[in-house]
Amino acid sequence: MTPFWIRHRGADLMQGDFLPGCLVPLFDPEFGLRGEAETVSLNRGDLIVVTQSCDLANQKAVFVALCPISTLAAFEAVNPKFKQKGAWEDVRRGRREGLHMLASPDDPGNNREALVVDFRQIYSLPFAYLTRHSEQIGDRWRLQSPFVEHFSQAFARFFMRVGLPSAIPPFK
Question: Which residues pair with 61 in a beta bridge?
Fold first, then answer.
C-alpha cells in the first residue's frame, strides 16, 4: 500500500498537514447576546490544514482554514451512529456528506486505525500561531500526493454543493 503520509518537521505549512493539539476557540451558546466584550474559552484539538498550499507558501493567508481530524473510535464516542455496520464503508467510499477518511499514518493497512476529517466544522486560526505551533510539535504528518489532491477535491465537493429549489422530474 502506498503511504498516505510522510514525516515532516518545520514551521512551513501545506494543505494536508496534520497538526495535533491546536488551540481552538470554544464559543458559549450565548456568545454575542450580551453586547459587550466577552471571554472565549480555548480547547485543544487535532486539526488538518485545508487552505491551499500555494496561498500558504506565498503567505497570502493571514488566517488558515483547518478541520478536525480524529480516529474512528474517538469520532464514534461522540457520534454513536457510526458504530453501525456499514457506516464507515459509506464514509470510505465518499458517500457520507461532510466526512472524509484517510489511512492511518502508523498502520495504513488497518482500516479500523483510519482517520476521519469532518468538513462540517471549519476553524480559522492565525497563520503565525500555526507556524509557531508546527515548530513546537516537532515531527508531524503531512499528506503526500496524490492523497492531498484527493483530500482537497473532497473538501471542494462538499463546499461547492448547490441546493436547487426544484429539479427536472425523474424519468419513468
Answer: none
